Each structure stands twice: as structure tokens, then as C-alpha cells.
Amino acid sequence: MLRIHFTGVDLARVRMAGRPDALWETILSFHRLRDRRDARLFGEWRTETRSRLNSETRTLGMLIPSRGYFPDFLTPVEGQYGWDVGLDALRGIRPERMRRELQLLGAGAPMTPRLREFMDCGDKQLPRLMGELRAYHRAAVEPYWTHIQAQIEAERAARGRALLDGGADELLDSLPPMLRWRAPVLECDYPVDRDVRLRGRGLLLQPSFFCRRTAVTLHDPELPPVLVYPAAAQLASAPASGEAARPVEEQRQRTLGKLVGHTRSVVLRAIGDGATTSELARRAGVSLASASQHACVMREAGLVTTLRRGNAVLHTVTPLGAALLKGGAVAS
Length: 332
What we know:
By secondary structure, the protein is of the alpha/beta class. The chain has helices spanning 8-12, 22-34, 39-52, 58-63, 83-91, 95-105, 113-120, 122-140, 145-173, 233-236, 249-256, 262-271, 277-284, 288-300, 319-327, and strands spanning 2-5, 14-16, 179-182, 185-188, 194-197, 203-208, 216-217, 226-230, 275-276, 304-309, 312-317. Helices cover 50% and strands 14% of the residues. A hairpin with an 8-residue loop joins strand 7 and strand 8 (226-230). The protein is globular and about 65 Å long. It starts with a strand and ends in a 5-residue tail after the last helix.
């Protein structure tokens, strides 16, 4: 079990990440690629990603085991500001830190010759690692980035509501079931027994599309505290076909034809920064059943993401929906 210990200062410094972290998504997706579970969510994604992978991933496979520890330097804190910023931080990693973290990969077992070679000349091996990371990201993550963004934005909307309704206590209590808020400790199912003491530094909550079953945190307790956890939105909004992570342009083209009309334009605009079905019906001046039906059609078209929270659902506009509204592409 993982136990994260908060002080009053830490509660005041809990914050939600502003966007998906491209490096965390890339590293965690590499786990999903080799995992046969969750075929309903990731089956099509695995097939399509493997078909696009024309480059070598042996270095990634060496540094990212199927389970357990992987080096903290692969997910620098700067990654929260974007892919390029994160790569720049990774490029500037200090050799001594790289060697220290690589030694943890071989803990408890003889170090392989390839890992020993990488550790001994890590600065020379870094360009190879960066090249593999870029190629893998282009194949596995970049084609699905709009969908990943929509899921994380929906998650942020739901947690933001919890924060507004009841403060940090409500926010932490609203996290997915594998995370349990027992003030002043946030507990999490975890492969090992570990305590993290925030000591007034606060905590960055980073929802992730490719994180599954358990949350993840950095190994080094001196690094800025971050908790990467599964975004609940990925299950709530998965299409019936199970192709949650796959671009579904053909489906969207068929469904977009249903969207022309004044009422759905009003409904899409009424969602605003997020709305439950009841709020949507009230804002748009339609019945509850009608609001639910309109939201369903727009969700199928990729314009809306829906996240279940307790007995209610929260609808948010995706980047595609926002672009249509901004460009006036929805008929009025």
C-alpha cells in the first residue's frame, strides 16, 4: 500500500495538472502495449500501434520493465508543460543521477550487459533513447492525443467541481476507488508498502489515460511530489465497440450529420465549462430525456465527453466541440 501523508499546508497546495503529461502517457502506454489485459479499451490501439512501430524499442524495453520500478528521469516534472519541454529536461539529465537511478533497475538481480553498458556511457546512449522515445510517441500516443486531452479535461472538470463543492477534502475523497482519503492520509493500492511525506510541498494530481489499476508516483522522495492516477473518464465514455483509444473518424462523420439543427447547437453551448444532465436540460430549456439524448449523440460524434460521478454524470465539451463552437460550424 502507498500512504501519502498530508499536513494542513499540503492540503492547501493540492493542485490538478493543467493538461495530460505527454511523457507519463508515453511511458505508461509502453506498459499497456505489452499487457494483454483491458482488450476492450486498448485492443484496437495495440494493433494499430504495433502496425506503425517501424523503429527499435529495445532501449525502452530495457529501461521500462513490464512491472515495477522504472527510472524517474524518464518522466521529468517539466513534462507537465508539454512534450518538447519534457524532452529538453530529459536531454539535460545529470549523468550521476542517471547512473544512480539505473542501478535501481538491477537491484536484487545481476545487471544485464546491455544495462551495464548503458549505465557506463549513459550520456552517449541518451541520443538513442531520445530517438526511440520520439518514434514510439509518434506511433503510440500522438495519433490519439485529441482523445487523451478530452478525457483528461473531463476528469479535471469533475475534480474541479468536487474542489468547489467541498474543498481539498472533497477533491481527495472524489478520486477513483483505488485511492482512499482517510484524513490526513491518502491511501492507494500499490505493489509495495511505502510512505510518502509531503512536508509542506503539496501534491500534483496528474490524471492519465494510460495509467491503469493503480496510481504511480516517483521513487525519489526528494523530487516534487506527483501522483499519477487513472482518469475515470476513459471507462465512462468508451464506445460500445470498445475502441476507446482509437481515432473513430468514420463514426464521427456518420454522426456529425445528425447534429445540424438549432436545438443541438443550443445544447452544446449550454454545456459550457461542464454540466450535469439536469443542469443541461435547465440551461437549454429542454426535457431531461431530450438533454440526455442530445448529449449521447454529441458524445458519439466526439464533441462531448461524459464522466460518471456517483449517481450523476458530468458532460464537458471536447477540443473538437470547442473548435466547432468557436468556428460557428454548428448550425444555429
